[in-house]
Specification:
Blueprint lengths: L5 E2 L1 E4 L17 H14 L3 E4 L1 E2 L6 E2 L2 H4 L3 H7 L3 E4 L9 H11 L3 E5 L3 E2 L15 H8 L5 E2 L3 H13 L3 E6 L2 H12 L7 E7 L9 H15 L3 E7 L4 H10 L3 E4 L6 E3 L2 E2 L3 H14 L3 E2 L2 H8 L10
Parallel strand pairs: 1-16, 2-3, 2-13, 3-6, 6-7, 7-10, 10-11, 11-12, 12-13
Antiparallel strand pairs: 4-5, 8-9, 14-15
Helix pairs in contact: 1-3, 1-10, 4-6, 7-8, 9-10
């Protein structure tokens, strides 16, 4: 099994899963997203995975005008790699979801490797009331929702992204998604060193058991050999346990309030930076060094921050 000298920390700052009523610390406005991203980078995140929200009600948006209100500030304040979502929200069309990546030509963009059920509705049981009307519907509607990422969708997005020099964080929520990625590689749609982000603990995808993590790693090793970099994210309470397991198995890690609102049992994370600091302490406790943004660029064969469109 391949191991690397340094571990890349990605921080997913706000995402589209959690809603403002779930935590007062979830970044919503462009100013909050910028401040959260900058602090996460200062704490040791080499990559910032960014979504945008309507500043008035916190609803996920892929409107490039909202991204434009925080991207330049983050770029001038840090040297972190900017990774823009093409996932957006499961409720959006693929065309909507691609708009920020097409306009801003980032070094890195996320890409889900298959269609799936994406169940957020169990979170309804945890909250008595919501600040905004959209929040309850957002969770309830996931009961009857397929997060659409067909082969045609993925091929179109990756081909367009490649024309801009954008590379992809290939998000794999299940074992079949690894096989989908292998197929795309075999057909020449994906080339170079592949960045696989394995996602554990979303209802509809693979679970967060240690055996699930091992199965994902073994399968990726078999399919991709040494031609990939592996990172993990654990949803909710599994975040830090799965990060530690990934690092011990030669992988990279992702944290952030997109993936978990918590820092410890019963304790909300007051910032993204606090999660970055915690995972960094875990990594350094395991005798791993944390990668700088430029080291991450080299590992992932990225084009460089001077070649983006913002």
């Amino acid at each position: 099994m391949a191991t690397q000298r340094k571990v890349i920390i990605t921080c997913a700052v706000t995402g589209a899963i959690h809603t403002p009523s779930m935590s007062p610390h979830l970044p919503v406005t462009p100013e909050e997203i910028a401040e959260a991203g900058i602090a996460a980078a200062e704490a040791g995140a080499a990559i910032l995975h960014l979504h945008a929200r309507d500043p008035n009600n916190g609803k996920p948006t892929q409107d490039p005008a909202v991204f434009e209100r925080f991207l330049p500030r983050i770029k001038t304040s840090t040297d972190a790699v900017i990774n823009l979502t093409t996932g957006g929200s499961p409720h959006m069309t693929v065309e909507e979801r691609m708009r920020p990546a097409m306009e801003f030509k980032p070094e890195l963009a996320s890409m889900n490797m298959g269609s799936m059920n994406f169940g957020l509705f169990p979170m309804l049981n945890r909250y008595d009331s919501f600040q905004h009307e959209w929040e309850r519907a957002h969770l309830e509607n996931s009961r009857d929702l397929v997060f659409k990422n067909t082969f045609a969708d993925i091929e179109t997005a990756m081909t367009l992204g490649a024309e801009n020099g954008t590379r992809f964080e290939c998000e794999c929520y299940d074992i079949g998604h690894l096989y989908n990625l292998r197929n795309l590689m075999d057909r020449g749609i994906v080339g170079g060193r592949v960045f696989v982000q394995s996602v554990f603990g979303i209802l509809g995808g693979i679970g967060p058991h240690p055996e699930d993590v091992m199965h994902m790693r073994r399968t990726a090793d078999r399919l991709f050999g040494d031609a990939y970099e592996w990172s993990v994210l654990g949803a909710g309470s599994s975040q830090m346990r799965i990060a530690a397991q990934s690092a011990a198995m030669g992988g990279h890690v992702r944290v952030g309030l997109e993936d978990s609102l918590w820092l410890a049992p019963g304790k909300l994370a007051e910032s993204n930076a606090s999660q970055v600091t915690k995972v960094r302490e875990i990594l350094e406790g395991l005798s791993f060094e944390v990668a700088t943004p430029d080291e991450a660029r080299e590992m992932l064969q990225l084009k460089g921050a001077d070649k983006v469109g913002f």
